[in-house]
RNA sequence: GUCCCUAUCGUCUAGCCUGGUCCAGGACACUACCCUUUCACGGUAAGAACCGGGGUUCGAAUCCCCGUGGGGACGCCA
């Protein structure tokens, strides 16, 4: 058995979406599992739609997700690697010319309407195609048998000639895809099920070139989320773009973990697992045959689980990176020690990094918003104003050294008035943060410091 | 319309290959309760599925067939 060589072959014609990422991931996982080679090949044969910006997005997205390629084009200064380059189809015209000549010499290519067509072998007949609303010529030939690693044996009987070179002289996907897979010695073609019906064309091409077939594995598709319509997920769907998760500062390892579980599982109940473990267990036969709907809530949960276990330093670094990209975020970063304390308070509370700005806003500004509903609720219960004044009176003498010290001071105050901690907690939180959600009030007091806490209590008491 | 793939809780799925251990297990979501100093986390509990019909068999979620549902392809896009 020759060493595994797989490839991910995107075209830079649009944003990098979740389906592409999953295809890339499964190829990457299979390469790493088998100790094989992961090739990145850019299929930029559509001059009208290709763009350098989208090309960069492919490199950046793969890198962000942690999928390194062993062979591939010169990307972001990495330099071209591999012995079968160039790895951009726009630079491989001479190779395609050679393969075309081979087909022409064998009588398997002909010209029509300025384009070059691949000629199928077999009995020809015409039929009216309801879908295309025109007569088409079909070829009755020996059935093509696809031995699919995921689906088993798939058989297709009908063929049609198809274009391999456009009238503008550029080769078409089916042709270049097969030629490069041959040239680059790809052993396993792992791609979405939407290509399953193309595969018979591709197999005919392999036969035309007289080479042996690679193994095929057609992945189930990722469908729209429940309630978001029918069909496969498209670039236009909410949550479909990798870029979106990157901008929202999702953890790439969480996204990768979620994506790995969309159509594959380790065979037991584990869901959150280290990448190395996924690599160890991943294999083609374990991949599901049916499509899966995308569930952003489950992804969000996975992200939270990963966030929770981040070491303090990494979490603070992630938070700092996030704030640095927020409007006005620089102010929050001004005091590093203060920033760190706040972020660590927030870490166990949030589901994703992009909640941080709103969740911690009151630490960084005095003009934080007041939640009117919460205000009405808190002020409508007991005698919060009295509690507020008792607290303000006690504050100057309070020990702010630790959460525990603040807690016992407030408890002492409460006991003295025949009350409980909770009687002070709600109104103090409202006065100091404007809301009813957040870290413990003692830690907020401590981090804010006595002066700022007292000032906020005073200000609130004045208008309450 | 033609061809191809597919079918277990709302969703992701285990179980199916090698029929009995499954009145079907886990996770997300939802609900309730517990924990609690708010909000989360966490814990416990509840509800929730073998698409339908035929067969094969002592026995079918598991094997076969037919329906139906879902998905894909049918471009001088990839």
Overview of this protein structure:
Helix 1 crosses helix 8 (275-281), helix 15 (384-394) crosses helix 17 and helix 15 runs antiparallel to helix 19. Strand 6 and strand 7 (152-159) form a beta hairpin. The chain is built from 19 helices and twelve strands. The protein starts with a strand and ends with a helix. The strands form five sheets. The chain has a three-stranded antiparallel sheet with strand order 3-4-8. Strands 5-6-7 form a three-stranded antiparallel sheet, covered by helices on one side. The chain has helices spanning 18-34, 52-65, 93-105, 173-183, 199-209, 242-247, 252-260, 275-281, 296-308, 312-324, 329-333, 336-346, 356-364, 372-379, 384-394, 403-416, 421-433, 441-448, 450-463; strands at 5-8, 37-40, 109-112, 115-118, 123-129, 134-148, 152-159, 162-165, 188-192, 215-219, 222-223, 292-293. The protein has 464 residues and is an alpha/beta fold. The longest helix is centred in the first third of the chain and has 17 residues, at 18-34. It binds one RNA strand of 78 nucleotides through strand 4, strand 5, strand 7, strand 8 and helix 4.
Summed up, the helix count is: 19
Overall residue-averaged pLDDT value: 94
Assess the beta-strand content as a share of residues: 5-15%
Number of strands: 12
Radius of gyration: 31 Å
């Amino acid at each position: 058995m020759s060493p595994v060589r797989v490839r991910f072959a995107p075209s830079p014609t649009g944003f990098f979406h979740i389906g592409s990422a999953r295809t890339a991931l499964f190829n990457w996982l299979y390469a790493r599992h088998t100790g094989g080679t992961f090739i990145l090949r850019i299929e930029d044969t559509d001059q009208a739609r290709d763009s350098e910006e989208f090309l960069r997005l492919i490199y950046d997205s793969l890198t962000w997700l942690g999928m390194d390629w062993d062979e591939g084009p010169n990307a972001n200064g990495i330099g071209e690697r591999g012995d079968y380059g160039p790895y951009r189809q726009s630079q491989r015209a001479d190779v395609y010319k050679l393969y075309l000549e081979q087909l022409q010499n064998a009588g398997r290519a002909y010209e029509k309407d300025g384009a070059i067509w691949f000629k199928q072998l077999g009995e020809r007949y015409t039929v009216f195609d309801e879908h295309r609303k025109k007569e088409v010529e079909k070829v009755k030939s020996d059935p093509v048998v696809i031995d699919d690693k995921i689906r088993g044996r798939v058989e297709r009987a009908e063929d049609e000639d198809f274009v391999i070179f456009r009238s503008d002289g550029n080769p078409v996907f089916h042709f270049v895809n097969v030629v490069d897979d041959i040239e680059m010695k790809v052993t396993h073609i792992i791609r979405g099920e939407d290509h399953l019906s193309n595969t018979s064309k591709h197999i005919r091409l392999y036969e035309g070139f007289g080479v042996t077939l690679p193994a095929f594995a057609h992945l189930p598709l990722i469908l729209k989320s429940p309630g978001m319509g029918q069909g496969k997920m498209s670039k236009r769907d909410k949550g479909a773009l990798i870029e979106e998760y990157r901008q929202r500062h999702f953890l790439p390892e969480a996204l990768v973990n979620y994506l790995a579980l969309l159509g594959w599982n380790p065979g037991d109940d584990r869901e959150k697992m280290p990448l190395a473990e996924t690599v160890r267990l991943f294999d083609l036969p374990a991949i599901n045959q049916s499509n899966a709907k995308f569930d952003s809530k489950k992804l969000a949960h996975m992200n939270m689980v990963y966030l929770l276990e981040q070491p303090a330093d990494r979490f603070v670094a992630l938070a700092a990176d996030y704030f640095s990209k927020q409007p006005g975020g620089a102010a929050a970063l001004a005091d590093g020690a203060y920033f760190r304390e706040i972020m660590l308070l927030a870490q166990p509370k949030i589901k994703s990094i992009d909640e941080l700005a709103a969740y911690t806003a009151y630490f960084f500004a005095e003009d934080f918003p007041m939640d009117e509903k919460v205000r009405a609720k808190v002020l409508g219960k007991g005698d919060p104003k009295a509690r507020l004044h008792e607290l303000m009176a006690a504050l100057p003498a309070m020990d702010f050294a630790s959460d525990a010290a603040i807690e016992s001071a407030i408890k002492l105050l409460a006991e003295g008035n025949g009350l409980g901690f909770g009687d002070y907690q709600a109104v103090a939180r409202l006065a100091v943060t404007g809301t009813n959600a957040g870290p413990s009030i003692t830690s907020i007091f401590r981090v804010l410091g006595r002066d700022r806490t007292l000032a906020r209590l005073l200000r609130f008491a004045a208008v309450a």
